[in-house]
Give the backbone structure.
Amino acid sequence: MSSPVAPTENTAPAAVQHPMLHGPIAPLLIRMTGPVVLGIMLILFFNLVDTYFVGLLGTKELAALSFTFPVSFIVMNIGMGLAAATTSVSAMRLGKGETARSSRINLHALFMVVALIVPISLIGVATIDPIFTLLGASPDLLPLIRDYMVPWYLGVIFLALPMTAHGAIRATGDTRTPSIVLGIAGLINGVLAPLFIFGFDWGMRGAALATVVSWMFASVLGIRALYRIGHLSLQPMETQTWWRSWRELSHVAIPAAATNLLGPLSAAIITAIVAKHGATAVAAFGVSTRIEALALVVFMALASAVSPFIGQNYGAGHHHRISTGLRVVFQLSLTWALLSVVLLYFAGAWLAQLFSEDVSIQQDVALFLKTVPMGYAGLGLVMIIGATLNALRRPVLGTAINVGRLFLLALPIAWVGDYYWGLTGLYIGLASANLLAGLAIAIWFRTNIRSRAFTTLRPESND
């Protein structure tokens, strides 16, 4: 976990010796992806444990938890946007040999998280009832939703801080440390959830508190790890330096956060459509999306691994390595997409039985897992291309791509499918839209990457 370059402002000759900038590409990306898969799998697995224990409380509690997913994802994805910006900007600076500048940016990013997330969390606490009523939650579910969301909102800052710290660590090429921290946090959550929910009889509130405590540990461990590897500057700096870093981060963070928000926003709309089929359908949809998150881990990991790789090579001007790296990642993504379709199709019914004894919920979960994964090949390409555009400092293009995928394809096709064929049509519509979007974007991106339209350094990146 040593620093890739000497701690000076301009040390480009030393930077070229870093493994990210030379040597075999495929083994490097696979080594970087593996720890990310493990870390995300662990934390999602223990989140599934939360869902399992809440499901034991009853169908109403499970439905209430399902309603919280879109809203919680919105707040989380704001933090993810800033984490993506930190990875992109910090990696690019490291590729240019500007380690001291990268360390300052990392510190400024952590303060930026606090400035953004704390006001959002306070507003969230004050608007729980109107927001969830708008999403279709019935009055009898609102008290359960409040029990979960109040502690969740008040503690979400401890999720956003390690996200950003991990983004800075990944920018150096170290994906192992963030994965270890995520694994520890997931383990803590998995142990505390049943204790808080049943042992202390805190119910929904206990599930949220267990999650918040695990985030607190992740914050301490993540920031400490970033400081120990020498990529967190604590030296006093002028106000002008802070604004310079925040402007550079915002260039990527705002479009990246907007892109991340599109997913939860569309999920909220889909949840409202599903809610017309009753609380049972919403509960099944919530369980399905939690299981789906596990299948999407590999795509998320590939995107996380390719971002610092592209960022550093972008800063160093190694265009040929960017093209080769993307080809490797696309091949890995398509392979996993095919495997996940087969696994979820045949294991869907069994997985559904793990989360509920309600036959109707089991049937709806199985339906989701047999249809929606058919579009994962396209969805994976979209996720990876979005991360690539962030690393290449073209985040607005990534936002435009996702706007088109969600609002021109996914939501209209899903709505039409639901109108004529119910849940089956809705889920087939989602899969079809993802396939169409992935195919179109892959063709468009390949043409541009070959012409180096995205790999020429922008003038402002040299400031």
Summary: The chain has a mean pLDDT of 86. The chain is about 85% helix and 0% strand.
